[in-house]
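Q: Got a minute? One more chain.
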Amino acid sequence: MLNNLAGLYLQQRKYEQAEPLFQQTLAIYEQQLEPYHTHLADCLSNLGVLYFYQERYEQAEPLYQRTLAIREQQLGPEHPATAISLLNLGELYLQQKKYEQAEPCLQRALAICEQQLAPHHPLVAESLRNLGTLFHEQGKSDQAEAAFTRALAIEEQALTAYHPDLANTAHAFARFYEVEGDNQKAAALYQRALAIREQVYGPDHPQTLETHKRLSAVLHAMNRTENDAPESATSWGAN
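A: Always. Here it is, folded:
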């Protein structure tokens, strides 16, 4: 009951209300359950996600690691829940710029998802999106673009048009094109992400504001480029 209520608060981003409930649940589970019980893993994972959302990465990491250890032992190294733990840990390392630690987690998560789930499962897309971000940070532009392209194609088929995960991929892909200097493609993807986030989260949500900020920067850069462009030879006229 406590865990379910905490999970609801987590979904609603009411972190201050969720945290003590997760901690109470964890204390009960650690007292009453076996050290490698899957319910304990679920609670550890949820609390880790909460800390991740709050950017409390050092607190999230040991929880994610414990979750992974339990799921590997109880469910097996190729189970989809194990892949979720690897995804969480890989994304955490990605945020911390620990790229050498992030890559094997994300690659392994993708391999499990591709083997155990349908080709167009959202977890496959999530793995690819995170790998796209990783490859971009590593300067592997071709691999990054391929990963983002595939992730977006999967989500377009598997998710509704206004699903927040689709916005996450569109935003990440737009950021890739922005850094690569392709502002036209970046603007189109930012506009798509913004439309979803405005509908799902509202105009004042941090993710909506971030996408709006990046879109404005890209549009400004495009406008500046147009204004700075030299006149063509035909516009000068012949003297």
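A: Confidence is low (pLDDT under 50) at residues 230-239.
Q: Perfect, thanks.
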